[in-house]
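Re-run with default settings, no changes from the original entry. Doing this only to confirm the output is reproducible before filing.
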Amino acid sequence: MKMSRPILILAVLTVLAVLYLFWRDHNAEKPARVSARRQVATSIVPVMGPAIAEAVEGAAQAPAATNLFGAQTWAPPPPPPPTPEQLAEEARKNPPRAPPLPFAIVSTWRESGTTYIGMSANGQDVIVCRSCSLPGSIRQGQTLLGIYRLDSVTDRTLVFTFLPLKQKQELPLGEIP
């Protein structure tokens, strides 16, 4: 294979330059933590001039301000948070209400003129009566689950008060045999 003389000279000079740079990198003491951008900036000075080198070095020292490849979405931006006036208006329109009663009627029966109501309250079974001496029964004025007070017992409903909000709630009994 025959090469022209100028190409052969360029190839030899390129190989020599590569060998020299390789030798210089492995024999020189490396400074502690010099950034690659600063090395580029100092190597550009003889070629491009000091003004461009200062710009490159300044860019190397400047912190990254924006994320060019941040997450993007098609969703619209979230609405702004409500103002205190809007919150007050919403509270005025929709005052807090007691949650639904956590009680379920399990059974009802009458015995010697007294009505007994078997009720399940969050896994606890209790007996409610108007005036009985049954131990463990719940009577008018007593508290259930710490937040409900039994106000009245009628043949058709039990009336409770939700104590944190002082709101009355009724639990229908249905037909008592």
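Residues 5-27 form the longest helix (23 residues). Helices lie at 5-27, 36-48, 50-61, 84-93.
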